[in-house]
């Protein structure tokens, strides 16, 4: 089922939750984000392949190695983020997108707008973070 969105469409709290327009909006948003991350990854790989560690100065080599390490960590975070985006796209297809994994309650549209891969409502996320903090403090 293909839904055409107006160019200025934004999900509103007043419309039915996760209606066809909202699902399509978030699907497109996730696909764009995924595409951007893949493009950045491709650019990083190209950059890493271009430059060898042929700097004659040891300080320059160390600086270059530090830069490469940072780029690789950033790409690893992007890879994990792409996996979460893929999971969110699967939830859209399966009909569970936008609903809290713990409570099955709708996740606020503003939260999904800010973090479209969210799987927990704000309240459940805060509970989860409090529990983590309690465990760390033990």
Explain what this protein looks like in three dimensions.
It is a single chain. The protein is mainly alpha-helical. It has two domains: 17-97, Four Helix Bundle (Hemerythrin (Met), subunit A), CATH 1.20.120.910; 100-138, no CATH class. It contains four helices and no strands. The longest helix has 37 residues, at 58-94. It is flat, with a radius of gyration of 20 Å. The termini are far apart.
Q: Poorly predicted ranges (pLDDT <50, ≥5 residues)?
A: none
Coarse structural class: mainly alpha
How many helical elements? Answer: 4
What name does the CATH topology of the largest domain carry? Answer: Four Helix Bundle (Hemerythrin (Met), subunit A)
The CA-CA distance between the termini, in Å, is 51 Å
Nearest-angstrom radius of gyration? 20 Å
Number of domains: 2
CATH superfamily of the largest domain: DksA, coiled-coil domain
The CATH C-level name of the largest domain is Mainly Alpha
Largest sheet: number of strands, sense, barrel closure: none
Shape call: flat
Mean pLDDT: 89
Give the tally of β-strands: 0
CATH A-level architecture of the largest domain:
Up-down Bundle
Work out the helicity level.
55-70%
């Amino acid at each position: 089922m293909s839904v055409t969105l107006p160019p200025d469409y934004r999900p509103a709290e007043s419309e039915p939750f996760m209606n066809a327009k909202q699902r399509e909006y978030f699907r497109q948003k996730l696909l764009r984000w995924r595409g951007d991350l893949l493009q950045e990854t491709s650019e990083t790989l190209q950059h890493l392949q271009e430059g060898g560690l042929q700097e004659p100065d040891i300080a320059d080599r160390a600086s270059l190695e530090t830069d490469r390490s940072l780029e690789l960590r950033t790409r690893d975070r992007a890879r994990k983020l792409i996996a979460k985006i893929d999971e969110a796209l699967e939830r859209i297809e399966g009909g569970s997108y936008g609903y809290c994994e713990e409570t099955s309650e709708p996740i606020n549209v503003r939260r999904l707008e800010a973090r479209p891969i969210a799987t927990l409502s704000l309240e459940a996320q805060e509970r989860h973070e409090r529990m983590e903090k309690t465990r760390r403090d033990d």
